[in-house]
Write a structure and sequence with these properties.
This protein is mainly alpha-helical.
């Protein structure tokens, strides 16, 4: 894909199409990808160059066509105003995700105990707020790992890869 502007090369949607083109030659051009997705080639250019934001339906099309489920997370966490609280997920290898999960699972029992202590009287005292914040951080870490695992499964357990 020659003559690509630096802005386009760093674009997540372009990168996903470029990676997918190694498995499907039709995706090596915007025209080929746009034809498959039934969207205008100019629209795909504007998305890949950051001039226009894609619609959610276009994200789904690209994620499926490119075998890049990470595009959904990227869109939700970076472009959608409602998704700012969704954990950002990066594509990682299964062994890294598993190790992070095991490390986090060690914290689960401690988190459970702290949460029980805090909530047992039905009142969150001022001195318990810091502990409650730690509980929240641990839960967010677990959520992020679960999302990473889901992403890995979607990307690698596809029945009929393109």
């Amino acid at each position: 894909m020659p003559n690509i502007a630096a802005k386009t090369v760093s674009n997540a949607f372009y990168k996903a199409r470029y990676e997918a083109a190694t498995h499907n030659e039709q995706l090596s051009s915007r025209e080929g990808a746009a034809d498959i997705m039934s969207i205008d080639r100019g629209r795909l250019y504007r998305i890949e160059s950051g001039i226009a934001n894609p619609y959610p339906e276009e994200i789904r099309l690209m994620a499926d066509l490119y075998n890049a489920p990470e595009l959904e997370n990227y869109y939700c966490t970076n472009m959608c105003p409602l998704g700012c609280n969704i954990p950002k997920v990066n594509v990682e290898e299964l062994d890294r995700i598993s190790l992070r999960a095991l490390a986090t699972f060690r914290k689960v029992e401690e988190t459970r105990e702290v949460l029980l202590d805090i909530t047992s009287d039905g009142v969150i005292a001022e001195d318990e707020k810091a502990d409650l914040q730690k509980v929240l951080c641990n839960l967010e870490e677990l959520e992020q790992i679960a999302q990473s695992m889901k992403l890995w499964v979607k990307k690698n357990m596809q029945e009929d890869p393109l």
